[in-house]
Design brief:
heterodimer; A: about 120 residues; mainly alpha; about 0% strand; B: about 120 residues; about 80% helix
């Protein structure tokens, strides 16, 4: 992300981190209980709060950069989610899933070399 | 409900939500998260985008109950390719060859994650 304005880089980081943490906490929370009341458990509510932060910061980022830039760049969160799932939720991840992760990183890097707004070079 | 049907529902409503938000936020750019939050309640298309997001989110909650996080999150990334196409056709963004290549790589990665 070299060459991008600092505010874009910082906001991108907020978008990614709030997404990963929110999903992680939500995943743990949703599996905790069989009843529908699980949606009101502390973990699920925390996950929701983090995802609300994600929504708002992402909306702001979308006003500064193209959707076709924002989507792949912030999808780095998918990679972080896989790592969190493996090391924090003890999910087993096949080599196919790790390979897919590398392809996603590659796609992100390719898009990351393009300017956020079309018309800039 | 079948997991892949849930994924399709999530992908469709996410794409709808993102396109609406991108369209609206470009028309009325906001300088901070706080003012984006205030702006949200003044624009019907933004509120509709939140409805789509709610549908997507509840689908995602159901998916998280039934499947691994390491499946659920990447499977919903399938919306990438749909959204890049919509960015070009609906939002008239100039999606250059490199972005198409990047989106394609992400799509292939998502497919592998789902194997």
């Amino acid at each position: 992300m070299t060459g991008l304005p600092l505010k874009v880089r910082l906001l991108t980081a907020v978008v990614i981190v709030s997404n990963v943490l929110g999903n992680l906490v939500l995943s743990a929370g949703m599996k905790d209980s069989a009843s529908w009341q699980v949606v009101f458990s502390p973990l699920v509510l925390l996950g929701v709060a983090l995802l609300i932060l994600w929504v708002l910061s992402r909306m702001t980022l979308l006003s500064w950069a193209d959707l076709s830039y924002v989507l792949p760049v912030t999808s780095f969160g998918y990679v972080l989610s896989a790592l969190a799932a493996r090391f924090l939720l003890a999910e087993s991840i096949t080599p196919w899933r790790w390979a897919g992760t590398l392809l996603i990183i590659a796609g992100i890097c390719v898009v990351g070399t393009t300017a956020p707004k079309t018309g800039e070079r | 409900m079948n997991n892949w049907l849930l994924v399709a529902l999530i992908v469709a409503s996410t794409a709808g939500s993102d396109v609406l938000q991108s369209m609206e936020m470009k028309r009325h750019a906001r300088s901070s998260i706080g003012s984006a939050a205030k702006h949200l309640f003044q624009r019907p298309l933004l509120l509709l985008s939140i409805v789509f997001m709610a549908v997507s989110f509840f689908g995602f909650l159901l998916l998280l109950r039934a499947a691994d996080l390491s499946f659920a999150v990447p499977a919903t990334a399938a919306s990438f390719v749909v959204e890049t196409v919509l960015a070009r056709t609906v939002l008239k963004e100039q999606v250059d060859a490199r972005r198409w290549a990047g989106a394609l790589l992400v799509a292939c990665g998502v497919v592998l994650l789902a194997v």
